[in-house]
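2024-03-11 09:14:02 DEBUG pipeline.ingest accepted 1 chain
2024-03-11 09:14:02 DEBUG pipeline.ingest length=111
2024-03-11 09:14:03 DEBUG pipeline.predict start
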Amino acid sequence: MKKAFIQGPRRRHTGLLGAAALFLCMVILVVCGVNSMSRSTAEKRQQAAGQAIRRAAVQCYAIEGRYPRDLSYLQKNYGLLLDNDHFVYHYQPLGDNLMPQISVFYLPQEQ
C-alpha cells in the first residue's frame, strides 16, 4: 500500500522560517556595515582635525618664528575651526621652537 505524501502546514512554516532567518541575517549584515563605516568616518574626521591643527601651528611657526602658546591663538589669527561638539583637543606647547604635542580625542555622543 502506498502512503500519500501530503504537503501540509508544517512544510509551509519551514519555508517561512527559512525566509525570515535569511532576512534577519541580511538586516544584521547591513547594520554591521553601517556601523563600520560610521567608525571609519569618525576616525578620518579625528585625523583631519589633528592635521589641521598641525598645519596651522607650522604656518604660525613659518610666519612668526615660534609655535603658538594655545589653540585659541590659532583660531583667532589663523582661522582654525575646532569641532568641540565631537572632539576634545590636547595642545601642549614645548617651547617656542619645538613642535607642540597635539592630540585629538573623539568625544562619545550620548544616545
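2024-03-11 09:14:41 DEBUG pipeline.report The mean pLDDT is 83.
2024-03-11 09:14:41 DEBUG pipeline.predict end
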